[in-house]
Amino acid sequence: MSEITPELVRHLGVLARIQLNDDEVSRLTGQLDAIVDNIAKVSEVATSDIAATSHPIPLTNVFRPDVVGQTLTHEQVLQNAPDAADGRFRVTAILGEEQ
Predict the structure, then answer these.
(1) Residue 13, φ and ψ in degrees, nearest 5
(2) Within the chain, which residues score under 50 in pLDDT?
(3) Structure confidence at residue 47 (pLDDT)
(4) Sign of CA dihedral 9, 14, 15, 18
């Protein structure tokens, strides 16, 4: 017996604030009933002796040593900047100020 009735679909439409016509209610009744049936089938298969998994393949993080490499000097960093002031990049204000 179907768990999803046209009245239930209309009620769900009201809760979701979706206006449904009779054709939509009829179509959605069948679709939602099929979804509920498929979920019930999956629930029958699931057993307590199967461990829950979040991913089918075990994942591990791969880390590399954090070694300081060759870095740019302050002058090298700022040499191609469109504008610099006091040893910093200079940019136009973007938050709440006139341009």
Answers:
(1) -60, -40
(2) none
(3) 72
(4) positive
State CA 6 to chain mean position distance.
Answer: 32
Q: H/E element holding 89?
A: strand 88-89
Residues 39, 40, 41, 45, CA torsion sign: positive
Half-sphere exposure in the Cβ direction for 63 (13 Å, CA): 3
Pairwise CA distance, residues 60 & 13, whole Å: 44
Between the alpha carbon of residue 65 and those of residues 43, 68, 69, 76, 92, the distances in Å are 45, 9, 11, 26, 38
Go through the chain and tell me how many residues it has: 99
Contact call for residues 19 and 13 (beta carbons, < 8 A): yes
The structure tokens listed for 42 are 């999956």
Measured between alpha carbons, how far is 67 from 24 in angstroms, rounded to an integer?
A: 62
